[in-house]
């Protein structure tokens, strides 16, 4: 399972730097540009760690932190402006695990992310480097690059295979279009989302019992796609 970081930040320059830096570390990045979006994305993508700017539009970082803490122990790192020590104290009081002060070095931030992840209670999820992923009738052998559906081999082009592998490695979790494009086509790919949607359509044609009514790869409107691990059998 790749680490998914939810970045709640409204300053574009920080967003760009953070996104680039975290992706270099092999992490998935979901961006929320205000507090409300942060809460929505928190539910949708189930991040492993949250970088939470204190000063956010719509809902403040403090309130976002409180609301998330009411339902989850996900590690939260507060991002505060230099010198606002009071904010830092409040952030820790409402349940943040750590904080960084702007401006920060990427190396320091990733070290802190890894530290809070080490301390976090591990959720029972799929092993990161497993060779076989089996969900429903679909069995993906990532070592041999083979797909079998109901025990019959199905040929897949490389990108479709990588896309399916990414989705199946993150079952029941929304993968945003940006996250998917980054992982499958690379962070410097200037792909429009149409490329992705076409690949999803082709993939559905091969793995779904009824491609017009998908039960494995579902669309999450306005966000992206999710691989359902409890697929409803027709
Ligand atoms: Ca801000």
Note down, in words, how this protein is organized.
With 234 residues, the protein is of the alpha/beta class. It folds into two domains: 4-119, Rossmann fold (3-Layer(aba) Sandwich); 128-227, Arc Repressor Mutant, subunit A, CATH 1.10.10.10. Helix content is 39%, strand content 21%. It has helices at residues 12-24, 35-45, 61-69, 85-93, 106-119, 158-169, 177-185, 193-207; strands at 4-8, 28-32, 49-53, 76-80, 98-101, 132-135, 138-141, 146-149, 152-154, 175-176, 217-220, 224-227. It has a five-stranded parallel beta sheet with strand order 2-1-3-4-5, with helices on both faces. A hairpin with a 2-residue loop joins strand 6 (132-135) and strand 7 (138-141). Helix 2 packs parallel to helix 3 and helix 6 (158-169) crosses helix 7 (177-185). The longest helix is centred in the last third of the chain and has 15 residues, at 193-207. 35% of the residues are buried. Mean pLDDT is 86; it is low at 124-128. The protein binds calcium ion.
Summary, kept brief:
By secondary structure, the chain is an alpha/beta fold. Helix content is 39%, strand content 21%.
Shape: elongated
CATH topology of the largest domain: Rossmann fold
Taken together, the total number of domains comes to 2
Q: SSE string, helix = H, strand = E?
A: EHEHEHEHEHEEEEHEHHEE
**Terminal CA distance:** 29 Å
Number of helices: 8
Radius of gyration: 19 Å
| Sheet having the most strands | 5 strands, parallel
CATH C-level class of the largest domain is Alpha Beta
Bound compounds, please?
calcium ion
Number of strands: 12
Could you say which structural class the secondary elements and strand pairing correspond to?
Answer: alpha/beta
The quaternary organization reads as single chain
Instruction: List segments where confidence is low: pLDDT < 50 over at least 5 consecutive residues.
Output: 124-128
